[in-house]
Amino acid sequence: MLGTVKKTILAAALVSLGGTAAAQDTIKMGGLATLEGAFTVLGEDGMRGVKMALAEFDNMAGGKQIELVTGSSDASPDSAVRAARKLVEQDGVQVLIGPLSGSEGLAVKDYAKTQPNVTFLNGSSAAQDTTLREPAENFFRFSTDGAQWMAGLGEYVYNEKGYRKVAVLAEDYSFPYTQVFGFLEPFCRLGGEAPVDARFWVPIGNKDYSSVIAALPDDVDAIYVALGGADAVNFLTQYEQAGGQLPLVGGSITVDQSVLGSKGRTRDFVIGTPSAGPISDTWDNSAWNEFVAAYKEQFPDGFPSPSLFAHAYYINTKAALLGLEEVGGDLSDGGAKLREALSNLEFDTPTGKVSLDPRRNAIADIFLTEVVAGPDGNLVNKTISVTPQVSQTLGLSYEEFLEYGQVGRENPSCE
Fold it and tell me: Architecture of domain 10-143+285-363 in CATH?
């Protein structure tokens, strides 16, 4: 009888050890995106980017199997933190990719400071202060921020389009503040105007733009629009229906594939809209063409071309996988070796080389674009030019750049 008990205990111990070994051969990775609310279609494409990177590595890194655990938010900071907390504290993820939206990124950055043994990599969140001020040592952004995305646009609109005065319409949170700053700083420095009383700020999920459209001034040359997802589609549809005549200048996500891929008469209305951002649909480069082909093959129900959200999530996920490869998947030190590897990581992406600055924010190429009808009838962003290796401080020293102050509704004032 005693021998039987000993055998049973030994067998249980072996099963337990086997289970531990299996667990050690698996790394849990969290993918956090806006899978509900006004930015749902953006989040869905972001997750396509995560899956593309994992497929490229056969769901392995450093000899370990990668198990993807998905978390959903609605673009609000509270929902992003709740989802991140569940992924980390309940699901046990060791590496987290996300979030998607600007103010979400600020909140998750702060949460990351409470979880020093978890490594956080951005999704597509592009608010400036996620990395510029009080960064978290375990939060990395291999995708650039919203001001970087505007590189070249302010100068182009002033010098080539001849616009001298613009109105602004944007969602009222940190990412659009960052985009507006990135566009207006050079535009106003050259002599352009964007009066504070001609800047209109709306909440995420706004459905009725009639009062904004009625209040748009007549004495401007164009409207700079920084809206995303359903918000952008709703405004563009209503402005076209109201007989709007002013030319548009697009924020990065206003003319992204997540908007251009939508159906309706709006498509003809946005042709000719200049913008800038981390991707260009017509970028004639073999790496980009391969990325687009892989996207279409894996996701035939996706957009005609990958959105900047798919691109950003792909790059951040690939960075995580490359880092895990470098450390042999060893996270036994709470991820310290992984974070050191990421800090020094430099690699080629579908849109050029990416590396990090001392605050773990990306330095990368940015594309100046214009919306055109593609050969298959789909709307695309045509490449006008490329600004190489744009830094978060836009070529200034860190100390000089901080003198601009924090982005907000009235920065820059354009006075």
Answer: 3-Layer(aba) Sandwich (3.40)
Q: Are 412 and 393 in contact (CB under 8 A)?
A: no
**Cα distance between the two ends of the chain:** 91
- C-alpha to C-alpha distances, 41 to 177, 229, 269, nearest whole angstrom: 22, 7, 21
Q: Residue 368: name the closest of 97, 86, 155, 158 by CA.
A: 155
The whole-model pTM stands at: 0.92
Handedness of CA 210, 307, 250, 194 (dihedral sign): positive
Give, for all 415 residues of the chain, the pLDDT tens digit.
434 444 444 444 444 444 444 446 999 999 999 999 999 999 999 999 999 999 999 999 999 999 999 999 999 999 999 999 999 999 999 999 999 999 999 999 999 999 999 999 999 999 999 999 999 999 999 999 999 999 999 999 999 999 999 999 999 999 999 999 999 999 999 999 999 999 999 999 999 999 999 999 999 999 999 999 899 999 999 999 999 999 999 999 999 998 888 766 676 789 999 999 999 999 999 999 999 999 999 999 999 999 999 999 999 999 999 999 999 999 999 999 999 999 999 999 999 999 999 999 999 999 999 999 988 888 999 999 999 999 999 999 999 999 999 999 999 998 7
Distance CA 415, CA 401 (A): 19
- Residues with Cβ within 8 Å of residue 19, at least 6 apart in sequence: none
What lies within 8 Å, CB to CB, of 5 at 6+ separation is none
CA distance 371 to 351: 18
Q: To which CATH superfamily is domain 148-283+366-402 assigned?
A: Response regulator (3.40.50.2300)
CB of 320 within 8 A of CB of 341? no
Domain ranges across the chain: 10-143+285-363, 148-283+366-402
